[in-house]
């Protein structure tokens, strides 16, 4: 009874331990599932220069960039539908993308796919899926995908992306990318209107239904004159034109920030590198309705920064300052209505309404367009899903803890089972078991003996097979050696002696292989092609066996005949010696096998020489496998 109680307690203790381990594992998995949510809310991107940035309805995305010489592949989105401070923006980390800087990216019309260009050697385009948060290389290959200073913008009407002075030619074409077919076509650029072919800024203007360009270098990376112009391209008509605006316009520049508001009525130019290579901090606003410029208050010095406009707020992040040093991770926010820089961000009412509609499960369109993509539909929000997952994880942990506590309480209240059988009953039950065990042991002993006999027989057969295999290998090696010696003797005594003649030259090889002066070679001439030619009546035309196989020009035999006869006799002696050697080896092996095979189970082993074989005969022994097949 004591043993039964102790075993039962030990089993219950092991069961409780395994269940406790399972509970800990489930709790760790639940916490691990909640970790990305917490990390997404508290992580911030590393401040970089020249990142690729793009826009959807309520988010701004930054990708890659250069951080003090280290190119990154970080990918974040900034929530523009919630308020935040400039020192703590609402960033969310996404799956890392390609490591690159100074490269363009733009969203598709449905805001489900992000396309990036000039990403890596051998890969022209990378595609990001917003639904799965994954990156994949495109099958598209571009001839000049190593060009820098190209920008991209999506037409929200057609869903096509336009890359001026792009990768199909060397800054001479307007490349058009099709998201649906993952393909690209090219149109020729005008020779005179659009001269800024590199490091320019571009935005989509919903008000004018066109793409606006400002700043940049020429195709040869030369500076442009300061002109008060904006270049405009209308995709619907494929026409280019120059917009001349009034007011104080910004001077020409590169590496600047250019962005348009939601309805396309205002365009902001901020910072950049001027013609004298100095960094600018001025800010200009273009009214696309009145076609006039106005200047706002200056801000911090910036080049290679990412920017966008949400409502009437300009948002700037990253870049370099006037000393070309990396700036901090804080945001810059400029209010276009009050013309002031401020320390916090307040989302537009339309953005908040769109986010509420997303949370409720109904889509809502945010009016306006963006600088690098189309504003057609707001992206799907996962805030409700994340909150539900967090609450569900906590509830699961609590339920598991409660189940463990209830199980332990039931084990304490439950009594240990009592063994009510007597000693006689146990002996009666054990007797049939003992008889069964004896029978099993007897049967097992007989089976072991038979198994050992079978193993001995199998081992004997395997040894016989190994002996036959060794005999065959020895015979094959002897035959191969004999054939090789015969071939060497035939080549040695069948070739004529050319020692009394000049060296022969192959007409199929260049003459400089044999001599530095091919014209001095006897019996050869150099053709115009550079290969030697055989002259008539020269040593090269001598036939070593002109008289029906007799060597040399003489018909009396000579040393050639004697050498050939001696070769035949020598070959016969070698063949006889090799045959006798193989026979002696076979006899010694067979004698050793017969002397070692004394067991009754090995009576059929090879113990004598093969029948019909004469050791002194020149014929090879018979096939040693003949007896093995009979057995």
UniProtKB/TrEMBL annotation:
Compositional bias of kind Basic and acidic residues: 420-438
InterPro entries documented for this protein: Gal_Oxase/kelch_b-propeller (IPR011043), Kelch-typ_b-propeller (IPR015915)
Signal peptide coordinates: 1-40
Ranges of Polar residues composition bias in the record: 359-372, 583-614
The organism's place on the tree of life at top rank: Eukaryota
Keywords, comma-separated and alphabetical: Kelch repeat, Membrane, Repeat, Signal, Transmembrane, Transmembrane helix
Pfam families: Kelch_KLHDC2_KLHL20_DRC7
Biased composition (Low complexity): 546-559
Membrane-spanning residues: 385-406
Gene3D superfamilies for this protein: Kelch-type beta propeller (2.120.10.80)
Record region (Disordered): 356-376, 412-450, 536-561, 583-631
Protein name per the record: Multiple epidermal growth factor-like domains protein 8
Annotated source species: Podila minutissima
Lineage start: Eukaryota, Fungi, Fungi incertae sedis, Mucoromycota, Mortierellomycotina
């Amino acid at each position: 009874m004591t043993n039964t109680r102790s075993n039962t307690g030990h089993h219950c203790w092991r069961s409780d331990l395994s269940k406790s381990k399972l509970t800990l594992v489930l709790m760790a998995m639940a916490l691990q599932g909640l970790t990305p949510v917490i990390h997404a809310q508290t992580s911030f991107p590393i401040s970089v220069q020249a990142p690729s940035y793009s826009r959807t309805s309520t988010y701004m995305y930054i990708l890659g960039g250069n951080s003090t010489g280290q190119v990154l592949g970080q990918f974040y989105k900034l929530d523009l539908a919630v308020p935040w401070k400039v020192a703590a923006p609402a960033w969310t980390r996404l799956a890392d993308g390609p490591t690159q800087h100074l490269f363009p990216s733009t969203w598709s019309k449905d805001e489900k796919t992000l396309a990036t260009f000039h990403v890596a050697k051998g890969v022209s385009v990378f595609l990001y899926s917003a639904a799965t948060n994954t990156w994949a290389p495109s099958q598209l290959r571009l001839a000049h995908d190593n060009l820098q200073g190209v920008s991209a913008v999506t037409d929200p009407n057609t869903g096509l992306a336009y890359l001026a002075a792009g990768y199909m030619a060397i800054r001479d074409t307007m490349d058009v990318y099709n998201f649906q077919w993952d393909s690209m076509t090219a149109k020729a650029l005008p020779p005179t209107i659009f001269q800024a072919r590199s490091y320019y800024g571009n935005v989509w203007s919903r008000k004018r239904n066109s793409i606006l360009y400002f700043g940049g270098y020429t195709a040869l990376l030369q500076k442009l004159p300061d002109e008060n112009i904006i270049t405009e391209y209308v995709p619907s008509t494929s026409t280019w034109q120059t917009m001349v605006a009034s007011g104080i316009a910004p001077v020409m520049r590169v590496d600047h920030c250019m962005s348009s508001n939601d309805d396309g009525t205002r365009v902001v130019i901020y910072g950049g590198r001027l013609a004298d290579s100095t960094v600018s901090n001025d800010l200009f606003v273009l009214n696309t309705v009145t076609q006039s410029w106005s200047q706002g208050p200056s801000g911090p010095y910036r080049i290679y920064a990412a920017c966008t406009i949400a409502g009437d707020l300009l948002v700037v992040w990253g870049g370099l300052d006037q000393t070309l040093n990396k700036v901090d991770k804080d945001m810059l926010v400029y209010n276009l209505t009050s013309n002031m820089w401020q320390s916090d961000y307040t989302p537009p009412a339309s953005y908040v309404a769109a986010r509420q509609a997303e949370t409720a499960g109904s889509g809502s369109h945010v009016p306006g367009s963006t600088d690098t993509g189309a504003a057609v539909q707001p992206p799907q929000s996962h805030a409700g899903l994340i909150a539900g997952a967090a609450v569900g994880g906590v509830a699961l942990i609590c339920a598991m803890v409660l189940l463990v506590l209830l199980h332990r309480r039931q084990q304490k209240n439950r009594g240990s089972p009592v063994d009510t059988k007597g000693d006689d009953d146990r002996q009666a039950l054990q007797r049939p078991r003992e008889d069964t065990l004896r029978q099993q042991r007897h049967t097992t002993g007989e089976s072991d003996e038979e198994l050992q006999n079978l193993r001995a027989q199998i081992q004997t057969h395997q040894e016989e097979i190994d002996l036959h295999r060794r005999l065959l290998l020895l015979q094959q090696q002897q035959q191969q050696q004999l054939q090789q010696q015969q071939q060497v003797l035939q080549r040695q005594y069948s070739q004529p002696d050319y020692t009394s003649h000049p060296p022969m030259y192959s007409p199929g090889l260049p003459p400089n292989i044999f001599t530095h002066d091919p014209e001095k070679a006897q019996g050869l001439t150099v053709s115009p092609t550079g290969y030697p030619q055989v002259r008539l009546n020269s040593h090269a035309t001598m036939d070593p066996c002109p008289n029906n196989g007799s060597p040399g020009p003489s018909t009396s035999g000579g040393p050639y005949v004697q050498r050939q006869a001696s070769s035949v006799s020598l070959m016969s002696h070698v063949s006889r010696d090799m045959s006798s050697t193989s026979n002696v080896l076979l006899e010694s092996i067979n004698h050793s096998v017969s002397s070692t095979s004394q067991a009754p189970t090995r009576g059929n082993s090879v113990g004598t020489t093969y029948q019909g074989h004469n050791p002194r005969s020149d014929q090879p022994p018979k096939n040693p496998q003949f007896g093995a097949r009979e057995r």
